Amino acid sequence: MTTSPPTTGAGPARVDPARVDPARVDPARVDPARVDPARVDTARAIAQVLATIRANIDAFGTRYPDDTTRDNRYALRPAVAGFAEGANRGWTTSFWPGMQWIAYELTGDDVYRDAALAHAADFGRRVREGEDLDTHDLGFLYTLSCVAPARLLGDEDARASALAAADHLMTRYLPSAGIIQAWGDLADPAQRGRTIIDSLMNMPLLTWTAEQTGDERYSDVVARHTAELRRQILRPDGSTFHTFYWDAETGEPVRGATEQGAFDDSCWARGQAWGIYGFAMNHRATGNPDLLEASRICAEYFLAHLPADDVPYWDLVYNDGADAPRDSSAGAIAVCGLYELAEVDTENAERWRSAADRILASLIAHYTPATAADADTVLLHSVYDLPKNVGVDEGTLWGDYFYFEALARAARPDWRPAW
């Protein structure tokens, strides 16, 4: 993923969430019979998220908010060369329709479906026209925007868009190293042979494509890429590198480093959370027991380095008493990952679910706006890229998405996300 400076422009005209039809966001619409109140009280939290989504649909229409808030308000994605304000560019735009698809699944309200379908059409245009595709984050982008409607509605246009994106993603595969390159042009010497732990979350697009086409090339790449990350990006002490370099010609591993963590040898909290979720999810896809063990190891390290309120600092080198910001988005990703791990590691399921419940309860109680009207974001106190001073102590599109996914997982244990 890449960073872009937060916008300083004014956002779109705001819509007061209090004006949204209460019948559409009342907690009673969230099927309380399927919510386990003994674990986490999710119904009211979900209702508040739904109110925020409705207000933001009215505010942004078919355009896209920026990666992060400024003072807890999203502005439109700023214009850059070749892209108008609010255009579909960068790696985070799919988290917005991803939230709309979850809202549609939880409520059956066509307002969310119609908004998300408009974005699916725009993602189809993006891949057809080849706009901003030089990234491994095509998995994030097209799983949430297009695989979701293909699965939920049988939407053939969305299916075709997702399959096209998967083919673009396959062009980033380096057979010598067995990895998909993360960023930039494949000929860029600064990025050649480099991948990042986040890439684990991009593999489900290829897994889905293998299922859809019967072509084992896609699943073979998933199996090799994830096994390479297990071998190189997971350290002996259970922590993870953010990024790792291979020699693109010989395939030999070179070195680990960071891009957004505190130090090369520290443990970036969001990266560790990606490890919990990504290794568990790819174990489900590949059956590789080493990936299951990797997810367990990532989870053990993450949980052992949480502060008293169970929400991590932005890097796990920090703990209680540190003068450092939290990253609630890492907490939300870890919740989803722990719920996923509980599904595939049945022997230890109760432990992982209990840990997820604790983190989620703290997020609900301490890291959300008091009311939907108080912010455009649903999850406060996230960090995008502290070394570059981008999105520090703000809302983030991915934090919002994974918080909502975590709520849906807690409320409906039989529900499955698009991944």
Overview of the structural elements:
The chain starts with 21 loop residues before the first helix and ends in an 8-residue tail after the last helix. Strand 6 and strand 7 (390-394) form a beta hairpin. It is mainly alpha-helical. It has helices at 22-25, 43-60, 95-107, 110-128, 138-153, 156-170, 203-213, 216-232, 269-286, 289-304, 328-344, 349-366, 397-411; strands at residues 173-174, 179-180, 194-196, 243-246, 253-257, 382-385, 390-394. The longest helix has 19 residues, at 110-128. Helix 2 (43-60) packs antiparallel against helix 13 (397-411).
The chain-level mean pLDDT equals 92
E-strand count: 7
Beta-strand proportion: 5-15%
Distance between the termini: 18 Å
In short:
The chain is 47% helix and 6% strand. The chain is mainly alpha-helical and 419 residues long.
Salient structural properties:
mainly alpha, globular, 419 residues, three-stranded antiparallel beta sheet, 47% helix
